[in-house]
Amino acid sequence: AGEGATLTTGERLEVIRRTRALIGPDMPLLTGIIAWSTAEAVEEAKAAEQAGVDAAVLFPLPQFSGGAGVD
After folding, report:
1. What is the pTM of this model?
2. pLDDT at 25 over 60
3. Does position 11 have pLDDT exceeding 70, yes or no?
4. Which residues pair with 59 in a beta bridge?
5. Which residue, among 44, 63, 41, has the nearest Cα to 53 in the 3D structure?
6. Is the per-residue pLDDT at 68 higher than 90?
7. Cα–Cα dist 44/71, whole Å
8. How far apart are CA 43 and CA 24, in angstroms?
């Protein structure tokens, strides 16, 4: 929904834990990860897995250089 960027890592993990408790162990749980580095993305993914996530979608950083093809 977009609020993930405004949450701390601890808050995001709490959302994952609460969601897992709500939906139970049989429904797959997916999370999105936006990180400033590969190492940070790996750390976030491992923490999310421990919190109950089954899969993660990794998003690129929301920044672009240049005109992105615009003349």
Report:
1. 0.78
2. yes
3. yes
4. 34
5. 44
6. no
7. 37
8. 24
**What local confidence, expressed as pLDDT, does residue 67 receive?**
55
User: How far apart are alpha carbons 18 and 36 in whole angstroms?
Assistant: 26
SS (H, E, C) the chain: CCHHHHCCHHHHHHHHHHHHHHHCCCCCCEEEEECCCHHHHHHHHHHHHHHCCCEEEEECCCCCCCCCCCC
Longest dimension (CA), the chain: 51
In order of 26, 32, 67, 68, the CA distances from 57 in angstroms are 20, 5, 26, 23
> Among positive and negative, which fits the CA dihedral 30, 21, 10, 49?
negative
For residue 21, pLDDT over 60 is answered with yes
